[in-house]
Fold:
Amino acid sequence: MRVNDDKEKQAVEKRFLKKRVVICIIITLVIFSGFVCKLFVWQIVEGREYAKLADTSTAYTVTTDATRGEILDCNGVGLAVNRTGYQIVLDKLYIDPEKLDQTILSLISLMEKRDEKWIDNLPIKINSNGEFKFKKNMRSEIKTLKSKDYLDLKASDNAKTCIKLLIERYDIDTKKIKNKEDLRNLLSVRYNMQRMWYSNTNPYIFAKGISPDMLAIVSENMQSVSGVEIQTYLTRYNPDGKIAPHILGALGSITQEEYEKKTKQGKDYGFNDSIGKFGLELAYEDELKGVGGERIVQKNSDGKVTKVVESVNAKPGNTLYLTIDSRLQKVANEALETQVKAARAFGKGEAYYKGKGQGEDCETGAVVMLDVRDFSVLAASSYPTYNINKYSKYGDYYVNLAEDENAPMYNRAFVGSFAPGSVFKPCVAAAALQENIIDEGTFITCTKNYDYYPTNPVACMGTHGSIGLRTAITKSCNYFFAETGRRLGIDTMYLYAEKFGLGEKTGLEIEESNGTLAGRDSKIWQDGNTVQAAIGQSDNTFTPVQLATYTATIANNGTRLRTHIVKEIKDYKKTKTVYKYDTKNPEAVDTSGVSKYNLAVVQSCMRNVAASPEGTAYSVFGNYATSVAAKTGTAENAGSDHTVFICYAPFDKPEVAVAVVLEHGAHGKYSMNVAKSLLDEYFKKDKKKSD
Structure:
């Protein structure tokens, strides 16, 4: 009985399934029929209307620039800001292609009559014989012109061949060109338009930074020419171009390589964009640039623009607040220049009587001041310096900078690496105390010439006799530290130096050097080299910012914090904080490994350098209103000796640390005077706050 029931149940299910299949087929046919009918209406009934609409309307999406974020000092003073400039733009959406060449020549004629510059990157000139020749010092541009991306020529092909191929490439009617100069200039613009991907969605910038007079002339003469536009744009400007060019950096036109790299990273860049090339402009490019907007431009079949719609608004970049105090920075710049010149003038006078090596070759130097409480950079100056506003325009000014033997563009404060001389001795003292190599009661007899290693003798500036640590640092006795260094050994010496931040990057947000640590970074080492390393010679070379960090670490009882230059990042309107350095909980990098007691001994010795009549810094800081702990240094070099000076103040409750290097300064008072000028300004300012 149960078997029959199961069969009947299965039969019912089969009939139900068949009905469902039939219903699904009917529904599918109805839907499909609807689509067929709609397609018939679109293609047959309304086809002509849609075809007409397609023929008469084309839309292009054009990217609009974002406002670049600004760079301010710790008090909100503008260091790199935006100001309005004017540029001439050729917009393909509006321009008549048959009139393009004549339009370009007309613009060039107007510009040259007023001696205004237009963008000219073609590395070819016309010589006095009327021949096309490559320009000198433009090897990179010549290589690009001949590359497969453009003319695909051999390296040996001449400028005349390039001109011939450019004429063919751009289909130039030479019969309509008056002379070779016009031809060369026209080809320059057309070539650059290709390089900048001139298109309906990418207008070409013909000239930037035009004067108000030129603005009026172009407006008057080109008003009937479609496609030529005068546009405003925000250009980078440094209110004081010399204040901190090495730190702030500069913008430049984006290269093909940079464009491809940024595109791969998903960043929004155009071929006409500027991009940070070095310094903070490079390091914080992503924060500063912002995000471009979009506008949709619609044209009809006649090529006329019928509608423009802003579809996406541009988002401005963020604003950087630095730890730099512009007042202190200016003092650092002025003090460096003054003392370098003073050292050189004094050296020339002394050299007349004593011979060379008196500072007559002092041309360069650097200084860094840090806040001991969080290791923020308050000032960092490199001399000689330059004007970043003029640098950004390239031309003769840039060429002169590049050819200057004193390398003004070289950031000596962060990248320059110099032998420290005797300012290295506090590190050796701290390590030797901690390793129980010496103590406060250890005495070594200085007989002037230390010759434990005959191949590496060390000469002392005096004959000090039996001498302890305090006097050895106060008088800067080479003999004492050569023997202490020998006992300590190079391996232990450089391990402590690392912890103090020497031979280590400090954590700065922009480019800095590692420096060189003797023993660790030396390719060849002999035992006798250790005594030279202990007095700050041998292979030891450190950057001024490392020396300032080392000094601040001593002042901070052995805790080394991350040295930094960015205080805060806000949105462009300065209403929202994106990032802020936590000064209450600064970022610790390492500890010196030296006990508080042993560090106190070293600190007391450094105080004696400035406060004791026997101290090497007493002449400048003996009667200074604020208590200073210091160490002087002289490093042997070809030519006059380098002078180095480190200090921190106040001694009892440190606030600032300073490191100064004067290359070939010879006499320590000049490097000390740089530090004194900064301390004068800092504590004067500090006093004003308390008042």
The first helix runs from residue 2 to 45. The chain has four domains: 2-53, 57-90+221-322, 94-199, 326-690. Residues 49-56 have pLDDT under 50 and may be disordered. Residues 326-690 form a domain with the Beta-lactamase fold (CATH 3.40.710.10).
